[in-house]
Amino acid sequence: MTKVLVVSGAGHALAELVRPAADAVEVRPLAEVLAAGGGGADLIVLHTTAAVRELAALAASPAPRPPVLIVTNGIVPGDVLTALRSGARSILIDGQYTRADLHDAVRATAAGHSRLSPSALSVLVDHVQSRPLEHGPGPFRQPLTRRELDIMELLAAGEPNGSIADRLDLAEKTVRNRVSQIYLKLQVNNRTEAIVHWLSRTGSR
């Protein structure tokens, strides 16, 4: 089972929520995680209102470091990109995710993928769309099918797999398989990279 270190100042509530998706252990303060070199964890969950500062502290710790999922009750738009550049792989914002979303984010982030709450994703989308293209977008490795295009459009809108499955009347397993094929065709590794690539190629809003 995935081993997760939850760094939180809010008691054991978040660690309890993470279970049973992973073997979650509450660790406080962050210095304990740094001293343990990540403690052999597969994932660090930072439940914090000071994401950028704590990410900077983690960045100073010895490598290799586990991926980081930030869970926060608020993050200013300017800090979203800074947090991602500083090593956060996923960002969930309180009030914008369910327990199922949290479990999905834990599993996905530990596996090297990314999950973003809608407001964090909007910041990323705005950033991508505000940047002029230096080069024309390259062709897809393989063209997307009509169904894959439908799924990609919903991914870019921030929809999770379960919602995509409901909207397109597909099994969630089918959506996961189609998303994996989309990653191969776009030559990306995760959802965030797929969205950035898609938006930079299509220029759509």
Summary, kept brief:
The protein is an alpha/beta fold and 205 residues long. Helix content is 49%, strand content 13%.
Description:
By secondary structure, the chain is α/β, with parallel strands linked by helices. It folds into 2 domains: 3-128, Response regulator (Rossmann fold); 132-202, Arc Repressor Mutant, subunit A, CATH 1.10.10. The protein contains 10 helices and 5 strands, in the order E-H-E-H-E-H-E-H-E-H-H-H-H-H-H. It has a 5-stranded parallel sheet with strand order 2-1-3-4-5, with helices on both faces. Helix 4 (77-85) packs across helix 6 (118-130) and helix 8 (161-168) packs across helix 9. The longest helix is centred in the last third of the chain and has 15 residues, at 172-186. The protein is globular. It starts with a strand and ends with a helix.
Topology of this structure?
Blueprint: E1 3-8, H1 13-18, E2 23-27, H2 30-35, E3 43-47, H3 51-59, E4 68-72, H4 77-85, E5 88-93, H5 99-110, H6 118-130, H7 146-156, H8 161-168, H9 172-186, H10 191-202
Parallel strand pairs: 1-2, 1-3, 3-4, 4-5
Helix pairs in contact: 4-6, 6-10, 8-9, 9-10
Q: Profile the largest sheet.
A: 5 strands, parallel
Given helix and strand content, the structural type is: alpha/beta
Number of helices: 10
Beta-sheet strand percentage? 5-15%
Gyration radius, rounded: 17 Å
Q: Rough shape?
A: globular
Q: Which superfamily, in CATH terms, is the homologous superfamily of the largest domain?
A: Response regulator
| CATH fold-level label of the largest domain | Rossmann fold
* Strand line-up of the largest beta sheet: 2-1-3-4-5
CATH class of the largest domain: Alpha Beta
Order of helices and strands: EHEHEHEHEHHHHHH
